[in-house]
UniProtKB/TrEMBL annotation:
GO biological process annotation, one example: lipid metabolic process
Pfam families per record: Phospholipase-like (PF26363)
InterPro entries the UniProt entry points to: AB_hydrolase_fold
Protein name, UniProt field: Fungal lipase-like domain-containing protein
Organism: Polarella glacialis
Amino acid sequence: ESPDYAVCGQSWQGLQLTDYALISLISYMSPTEQNDLPKLLSLLFPHMEVSVQAILGERQRRWLVLDVKPCKDGDRRIDQSSRSCKPVTVVAVSGTDVTRMTDFAENLRMWTEPVSIQILSTMFPTVRIWPRESTEMVIQAIHNILASLGLQDDQWHYREILDYVRQIPADREVVVTGHSLGGGIALVVGALTGRLAVAVQPPGIYHSLAKHQTQHGSAQSAHALHKRSVSLVFEGDWVQNFDGHGGLVQTMMCDQQERSLAVGCHLIEGAICHLLRHCGDQAQRFATCRHEYQPTSTAVALARSLWGLLRASFLESSYPAYLKGNLESVLYAGLAVSLAAVVRHGAPPMFAAAPRRGAVGVGRAAGGVSSCEAMATTLLECTAHAEERLRECSGRAPDEQNMLQLASDVPSVGKLLHTVEGDRPFVASWHVQLKLPAQSQRAAEVGEREKISAKWTEKEDELLDEGVALFKARCVKEAEQQKTEATISFEVLTREIEDFPKRVLTDSTYFVDSWGEGLSSGEPWFYATRGLNASWSPGAPILFAEVLQAMLPKFVDRVKDLGFTSTSHEAGTWKVTVNWGLTDESDKKKRRKD
């Protein structure tokens, strides 16, 4: 099936957009004992060598550094010296954490100027025709004035990331990636350092980049964003509209369009599903993907968290008790109004939770929402039937807010799948089922085909036994007529075998029409005859003569076991000739005796 988007099949430093989206998702996870990130990376990228070099920014913005070699050593199918196999450092930056107020503040600081210009353009439409240089000049002038007054605001969350990327040797390939706010930071750092940036669902930085270049004295040109940046945005995602976009931008459709106002088009889990569905997976790790989103649960969980944060702050403060009591009542009232607006008497159908089928997740996200009923769920299935055979959701609550369970052995599925489960607080719980490495997967396929071929082998034995019995009966009749040999057609015998595959004449050629009881298609015969590594095409016609030809040598061998004096097959025909008369030597002895 041909890809749906222009970027499908494209790669940057050996990684596809799907790979960068998966890495961006991992950047949200806390490095705990439960979150075995090295094990997770080995499951998500079995075709690459990926290792964690550093996990940084726990206090301000979580980000991690990965050392990636797109080609594994020893893979003879790939030219190890090619550019696509060159090792690369991937810096992944996490996006907005809704439990941290500093993240909301960072979003406001990062995009104050472009949003202000957009508001200004509604009052003065001519602002919309300003060239970028004019907007850049205004933004730079504002920050130059603030700097001269000692009011410059340049303590950004990305400062530590920027310093780290700048100290990496110039001959080392580096890619900065991230989702949402993390994607915006990746674009800024990439533009300031001249490194490649791959951003997933980022706010634009086309105009706001000017202030970052001014504050950090970047030597890069004003159009650095256009040269080495890739942005993936989704229709209906209002977060992307905070600023314009530059560089290579791919816009995709949203699978949650009816929930776009509730950030249904901004979830990275949905982006991964959409990429797999419409671009496929060149590494063939995943078969299908399902994503569900429940904004009502998100709003309730977020409100609970914010209320808990505010309540704890007031309980620890030194404000008078009456002040705390007054504010508490106001907060209660505001919370009630907010929840009423979101839930709207049980939530309208478009926000109602979709029914879950075959839930796999276990655990409980922050705010008391279990993964079984969590806000968004991604399921990457290896096979459709496997989901039904996996365990049901148990609702056990782990100690950590971010949960990851790795089960390399699922007995009911016969070691066919790896299962990975995790929660992103308030936004998503996700579940992936991954195919085993190619060698193990191939072994599983061969084992399954062997079982299928056994059906024909068993049936063929029964048909040959009946054929030999009919052959023997005809020889007895010939012997009763004082004959010492018989020539019988194997093809004629098969007509008398009731359950033998039936033929149909099409354009002067006989094809198999039906395979008899117990076989609905020719697949078992195909694997048993042509080998387990052959590729079966459902519905492909099979010559009846080919079935006879494959069985004839086995039939002749069984006839020989009957003890005839001689048994032979006439080449180019279905005829088998047997002789049970005396040999010349035996005949001479008999005559002398007489």
